[in-house]
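Entry 12.
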Amino acid sequence: FPGSDQGSLASLLADLFFREVVKRASFGIDFHTAALHRSNLPQIRIAPADEALLDLARAFAPPVVLTSKLRDGSLRQCAQDEGVQVLLYEGGEALRFDETAIEVAMKGTLRVMKAIGMIDSAPPVAAHAQTTFSTSSSWVRAPEGGILHTVRKVGDRVGLAEPIGIITDPLGSSTVPVFAEDDGIIIGLTQL
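Predicted 3D structure (tokens):
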């Protein structure tokens, strides 16, 4: 983004979408799944130090709100440059219908629409639901090659040095534990 009116098909499409949709909006929600062979806990990402986006993220009420810097050439960054407020939603897995991620996205979108006055009513936030707010995230990398057997799942809270998986050789004769590197919540998992 913002694309170009010349060049590749991707540049042309980004330019058309940015001019005809994004620049005409006041607010937006950019929906994403995880990459191929990954799964993500439903989450909203917002730009740092943006109280209006934080209010919209609270209205959305996902399991996790993550403050993350804007990336050059991203829809969020280009939209912000034009004064358009954009939430980035991530959830589920590419090429899969993750019913939980879809439901969180639909209900959260309706709550945001209500918060900005587009509709009169929206689904309530479940009484037991709780949003975790975070200002950082990181991947725990495997200390060596092998087959990962997870002992924790996406959405689980973990403590520093808590076991989250075991790496084995193909026959299962050698094992290497994998530990959480911080207190937190598991928001993503690679399945490669």
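Annotation: The two ends are 29 Å apart (CA to CA). Residues 99-115 form the longest helix (17 residues).
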